[in-house]
Amino acid sequence: MAAQPIAKTTPSRCRLLYAGDRDESLAVVKQVLAGRKDLELWRAADIDTALQLTRRGRPDVMLVNVDLGPDGGVPLMKTLRANAATHATPILALGSDTAPQAAAKSLEAGFFQYLAQPVQPGTLAEALDYALEFAALEEAEQSFKESR
CATH topology for 14-141? Predict the structure, then answer.
């Protein structure tokens, strides 16, 4: 029996919320998204704006600078995890610390993945694809549960 290709489970147009104030990181995000018609970029330069955007519509994946604001991005992530609408949304951490402990600390705090700055376009593209696939599977599982 021949193997059948597995259809992608991601929706046709996904929303990426980038919460960060570094122009260099935003430039890489825009570079990665330049050729992609499946992703729409939402940008928040601060934590309050990020929370406002998540209230208007749920992003499919988030990229949060953990160095954002006086307290960093961890309080934002914890607020999003406490919200029923965003509790399972993959949140990628973007940080300036390249030590392995920084990645471990971010994962322990609840982030989906840690990316050290300056982030490379290929690394970011792979992380986004992985997070979007995860988000699509989570959404399909939730829909299945609700239909029962």
Answer: Rossmann fold (3.40.50)
